[in-house]
Amino acid sequence: RPKPPPVVTTAPMARRRMEARAVHCPHSKHGCPMQRPPCFIEQHALNCEFRPVSCPYRKSGCRQQPLAYEEQDHIENCEFRPVKCRYDGCKVMPIANLQAEHAAECHYRPVPCLHRERGCQEIIVAYQRMSHGDKCEFRPVPCRYADRGCQVQPSKNQEKTHATTCDFRPVQCQHAKRGCQELLFIQEAESHADICDFRPVPCPFEADGCEATVNAADRDMHRNSCAFRPVPCPFQALGCKMEPCYRDKTSHAKSCKYRPVFCKYKQRGCTQQLSFFNSARHASGCGYWPVPCSFEARGCEKRINARELEQHCESCNHRPVDCKHKGCSYQPNAEDAAAHSEQCGFRLMPCPYAVHGCEEWIQAQKVDSHQEVCDFKPVACPYESRGCPERIFSLNVRSHAEKCASRPVPCLHAKRGCQEEINAQHRLRHSARCVYRPVPCVHQVLGCTELVSHKHLSQHAMNCRWRPVECPFGCGEKPSLADSKKHAAECKFRPAFCRYKAQGCTQQMSLHSLSSHMVNCEFRVAPCRFQSRGCRAQICWKDRQQHLATCRFRDEVEAEPRSSKESAPKKSTERRRDWGPRRQGPEQMGAAVAVQ
């Protein structure tokens, strides 16, 4: 701003002449054509479009002073203006003349994988190159049989394929399923199989029917215990020359024709003992041969010796006798004659309902037909088996059955699956304790609104989506199964990685302790202490000393003259402001998150 002219005391006329004369603008050397009286020129000079102004990026290093009307064009083209990085995701704003240098070192620039020569075609950002290389499917890994001599290092995705074709892979003996545990090289497998103790060999008694296949080492043991080995007959001393196999020894002994046997009628009194092939001839003429009774067809099951048959028939209880009732032609057995007389169908007897007023006498065989038409016949209620104690005449049965308290009716919960039929008088009591009655779920308080049968309540409770489950992270809460995923996503005890994992921090902890860890994490990202001097680097906490030693802005700080008394406290204050974890501002934290 130009200095005001000195106050000069002049006459009024001279003052008016001085104010009326035109003067040039102070910025006429820059091209301003304005000529006005001095009182207007002062105000014009403050807003003149040809006045020089300072560049807003002067602190970044710009020393130019453009004219006011060129200020906007200069700002847009200034070499020291901050510009956006060309790579997406980068939050750093370098100055224009250092844009190419920043792009060459930007953490978000695309770079090829370290294992591109092995076939990986991925393009990743620079700060993820090392982490991608550690988990890349094309990274070289040692062969799993390297300790056996294989020096090939296949890619990770070819590791299994190489292992199946590796010349140094161990193979099992082809008789491994039979018990051989040896691991061999491929060249030794065939020769070992021919001498292996576990190779299958046939039984020595294969010709006798043994189909067993045993290991070569167990052949002698099998020979001594084989069920097809020949053994002598136990009746060899009595004349049998056969040698059956061991498994048929017992059956041969039971069927050998030289075995000694007693007469088949020993229990009837015969005490003679003879060989089996003579027993049939003896039995046909034995005096104790049992014969059936002559009245076997009438029910006599006794077997009597032939010499005692005639005497038995004279006193047999199954001999036929005549009935004493007139008109009956039936001949019952002697032991059943008295019982038949009492039950004979031709005997006369009064009507069973004579006590109720019937006076007829009828034959016993016609009693049943009479009872069906007798008006005095008392009958039980059709629902007597269900508990009705009443007895009524046959004419009143139908009317009684329609209103009987013991008639069967379906359960009130038949639609829910109950198949029981209960007495009408017990219907309400059964419905109150029926296993199919609807009851609310035991997890109703957690949100379940279903009504299930009492029979299926326990099964429903086990499968209910509202049943309480334990938190997988051990927080102590028991949310319902339907809310378990929501709880797991919000649980403060769920595991989480440090925010600075990309910088190298590998610790994993519960979410509620993550904030306290990040304050002291040695991999946290913070700005350089010389940020106010132009350094825009975001560095890891553990690398801060190395960066300070090589920072190109440190010389400007050291070049400024300062007294020893003023520099010491200012340095300590600046150190606490720039490096202290509690003084870190939101912009620096945002930059740290962006770098991550």
Q: What can you tell me about this protein's structure?
A:
The chain is α+β, with helices and mostly antiparallel strands and 596 residues long. It is built from 22 helices and 24 strands. The longest helix is centred in the C-terminal third of the chain and has 16 residues, at 564-579. The protein is elongated, with a radius of gyration of 60 Å.
Summarize the entry for a quick read.
The chain has 596 residues and is an alpha+beta fold.
Helix content: 25-40%
Low-confidence stretches: 559-596
Radius of gyration: 60 Å
Distance between the termini: 49 Å
Mean pLDDT: 80
Please tag this protein with its features.
596 residues, alpha+beta, 29% helix, elongated, disordered C terminus
Please give the structural blueprint.
Elements: H1 12-20, E1 23-24, E2 35-36, H2 38-47, H3 71-77, H4 99-105, E3 110-112, E4 123-125, H5 129-135, H6 159-165, E5 171-172, E6 183-184, H7 186-195, E7 200-202, E8 213-215, H8 219-225, H9 249-255, E9 260-262, E10 273-275, H10 276-284, E11 290-292, E12 303-305, H11 309-314, H12 337-343, E13 348-350, E14 361-363, H13 367-373, E15 378-380, E16 391-393, H14 397-402, E17 408-410, E18 421-423, H15 427-433, E19 438-440, E20 451-453, H16 457-463, H17 484-490, E21 495-497, E22 508-510, H18 514-520, E23 525-527, E24 538-540, H19 544-550, H20 554-559, H21 564-579, H22 586-595
Antiparallel strand pairs: 1-2, 3-4, 5-6, 7-8, 9-10, 11-12, 13-14, 15-16, 17-18, 19-20, 21-22, 23-24
